């Protein structure tokens, strides 16, 4: 029997979000219904509401979530009712050319639930990133559920489902940060701070945080930054070079998603160093660089999709490190809120007041 629950929808372009009754079908083959316990508010949810992702309104927002599996459909063997899970938005297929080459974190054919959740009048909802977890329950593909140790608080665990994993993975998976490395992180929001925490965890010796907001830089220090640079006041490229013996950092992580900060990252890395772009640009942005510099500076220029994470490998491992006290995921939760406070949380996010607001259900 389909169930009726409360969920936060974005009804139309730039319209305020609101709580509505939504209909969640029983899980079909390969699907699962999850009772959501917590879901973080991410920029991508705001982009959906603004019409910046696509026009498939109404959206069911929310995608950084943790909860308990309530029911599974036919053929589901990896999770069962009662499992505590983090939802991921890249359920790997196991069959595409990336998966077959043994690189499932690049999977080119990730999947979502086949059935649609609806409003009570039958209007089909588009779940944000195929999840839609600002809701008491949600329907996902079973592969989107990753089982982790239930000892962790849901509001902390859920954050690994998106921004925090993107940042940690940008450092550890994409950037390959290791012991003794110098790292610079440009943009210290939730994603950048997670890149700092990931670099710290990986043993980086120098971690330089760059932002235009001193509040963000103060927080970055608590996440593991050894130095901070306010790039409104100081040229960040020169500052990073000075802090790294005149050379530049081994790995520079761009966590803003703008051409000017990408250019800073490009020139702030050492010769043969690595640039990781984890900030997400918008379609009109263009980059111009002397091709000779691209050649002459060598190294690698990489993008990080979802931190190049493999949920089944990375989520349980990072939760275990958190539970052992080696990774403070709790530091990313600025506030917990109710389902009807998402609109307000968007405003606070926009003003830069929070790392993450988390809806607790
Ligand atoms: N130089 C340095 N820092 C900047 C600049 C700039 N020109 N412009 C903005 N910032 C800082 C902001 O002050 C803020 O601290 O970048 C940070 C961005 O953080 P958030 O807005 O909280 O965004 P976050 O959730 O961290 O995501 C960052 O990654 O996944 C993507 O879509 C996401 O593009 C976004 C990026
Ligand atoms: Zn695949
Ligand atoms: Zn997100």
Topology:
Blueprint: E1 3-10, E2 18-24, E3 31-40, H1 43-49, E4 59-60, E5 64-72, E6 84-87, H2 97-100, E7 118-119, E8 126-127, E9 137-141, E10 145-147, H3 154-157, H4 163-174, E11 182-186, H5 190-201, E12 206-211, H6 214-223, E13 227-230, H7 236-243, E14 249-254, H8 259-268, E15 269-277, H9 291-296, E16 300-303, H10 311-323, E17 335-337, H11 342-350, E18 357-360
Parallel strand pairs: 4-8, 11-12, 11-14, 12-13, 14-15, 15-16, 17-18
Antiparallel strand pairs: 1-2, 1-4, 2-7, 3-5, 3-9, 3-18, 5-6, 6-10
The protein binds adenosine-5-diphosphoribose and zinc ion (2 copies).
One zinc ion binds at residues 92-96, 98-99, 107-109.
Number of helices: 11
Radius of gyration: 20 Å
User: Average pLDDT value?
Assistant: 97
What is the second-level CATH architecture of the largest domain? Alpha-Beta Complex
The CATH topology of the largest domain: Quinone Oxidoreductase, Chain A, domain 1
Oligomer: single chain
Strand proportion:
25-35%
Small molecules held by this entry: adenosine-5-diphosphoribose, zinc ion
Structural class: alpha/beta
Assign a percent range to the helix content.
25-40%
First-last Cα distance: 22 Å
Name of the CATH homologous superfamily of the largest domain: Medium-chain alcohol dehydrogenases, catalytic domain
Task: Estimate the global geometry from the Cα principal axes.
Answer: globular
Biggest pleated sheet: 7 strands, mixed
Domain Enoyl reductase (ER): 12-361
Keywords: Metal-binding, Oxidoreductase, Zinc
Protein name: Oxidoreductase
Family: Belongs to the zinc-containing alcohol dehydrogenase family.
């Amino acid at each position: 029997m389909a169930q009726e629950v409360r969920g936060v929808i974005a009804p139309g372009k730039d319209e305020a979000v609101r709580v509505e009754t939504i209909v969640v079908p029983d899980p079909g083959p390969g699907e699962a219904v999850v009772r959501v316990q917590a879901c973080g508010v991410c920029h991508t949810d705001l982009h959906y509401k603004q019409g910046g992702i696509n026009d498939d309104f109404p959206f069911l927002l929310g995608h950084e979530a943790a909860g308990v599996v309530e029911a599974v459909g036919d053929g589901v063997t990896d999770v069962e009712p009662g499992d505590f899970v983090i939802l991921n938005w890249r359920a790997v297929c196991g069959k595409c050319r990336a998966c077959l080459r043994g690189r499932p974190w690049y999977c080119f054919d990730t999947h979502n639930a086949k059935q649609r959740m609806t409003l009570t009048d039958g209007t089909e909802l588009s779940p944000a990133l195929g999840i839609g977890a600002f809701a008491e329950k949600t329907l996902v593909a079973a592969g989107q559920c990753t089982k982790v140790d239930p000892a962790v608080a849901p509001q902390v665990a859920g954050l690994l489902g998106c921004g925090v994993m993107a940042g940690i993975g940008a450092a550890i998976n994409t950037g390959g940060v290791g012991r003794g490395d110098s790292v610079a992180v440009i943009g210290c929001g939730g994603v950048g701070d997670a890149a700092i925490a990931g670099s710290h965890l990986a043993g980086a010796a120098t971690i330089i945080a760059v932002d235009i907001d001193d509040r963000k830089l103060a927080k970055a220090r608590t996440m593991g930054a050894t130095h901070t640079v306010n790039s409104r006041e100081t040229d960040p490229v020169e500052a990073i070079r000075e802090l790294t013996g005149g050379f530049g950092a081994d790995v520079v992580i761009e966590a803003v998603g703008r051409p000017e900060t990408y250019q800073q990252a490009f020139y702030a890395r050492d010769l043969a160093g690595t640039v990781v772009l984890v900030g997400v640009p918008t379609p009109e942005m263009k980059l111009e660089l002397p091709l000779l510099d691209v050649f002459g500076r060598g190294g690698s220029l990489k993008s990080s999709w979802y931190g190049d994470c493999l949920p089944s490998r990375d989520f349980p491992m990072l939760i275990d490190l958190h539970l052992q006290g080696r990774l403070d995921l709790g530091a990313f939760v600025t506030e917990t809120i109710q389902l009807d406070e998402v609109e307000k949380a968007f405003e606070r996010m926009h003003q830069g007041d929070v790392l993450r607001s988390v809806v607790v259900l």
